Amino acid sequence: MKPITDAEFAQFQRFIFDSAGISMADAKKALVTGRLSKRLMLHGLDSFGAYFNLLASGRHPDEVQMAVDLLTTNETYFFRESKHFDFLRAQALSARGRPQPYRLWSAASSSGEEAYSMAMVLADVMPGQAWEIVGTDISTRVLEGARRGLYTLERGRHISKDYLQRFCRKGTDEYTGHFLVNRELRNRVTFVHANLNAPLPQLGQFDMVWLRNVMIYFNQDTKRDVVARVLAAIRPGGYFCVGHSESLNDITNAVRQIAPSIYQKAV
Length: 267
Known about the structure:
By secondary structure, this protein is α/β, with parallel strands linked by helices. It is 41% helix and 19% strand. The chain is built from 10 helices and 10 strands. The strands form 2 sheets. The protein has a 7-stranded mixed beta sheet, with helices on one face. The protein has a 3-stranded antiparallel beta sheet with strand order 3-5-4.
């Protein structure tokens, strides 16, 4: 297999920008090589240019989705950025007893850890009450894993012992070293394929949306477009959480910051 050239890498930079709105840095050439090499071998191709031509031909839509999946998957873990979960707990407590379901959206849910972490908090704070969680991601491959809810024990190192005992089952035999999120919890989380850089599916209105550690990959125009789409799905007075290294400043004036990386939509 020929090494990827600068011109070929530029083609994939454009491909992932057009597909997902992600601006891929020049330093990511090794990532592209590592993640796509097996696809070249599978198709019997000897160059990244030939693989790009296969994607651009329009004859292999499943392969295009596979390439998007491989180039957009990012690592996550349970209860990442704990202050957001403290905020969620406080808001869920204040919403107890209301008639309508409390609805959350994990807008870049990846392999499901964020959405299931949310679910554990709501199951703990709002027992016997109506609540719903929707997780979306551009990668169909990681969504399939998220629906399964099976993880290595290492991925669950930030889950409290109490939550592990209440909401997860430890694997045995061939699943030793893994745990499974309980079926009852899995049934409360719906995973949907969605591209934030395109018109969104009809997901309904949410009390809180988390879009964390994703906008760092978007340019300013893409950020504005994505935030506008997400804000349209937040109820008046609802909340929008971003990653701690991200900000909505200079992106929208439809929210006010109430804490670091936490914003509230105008009523």
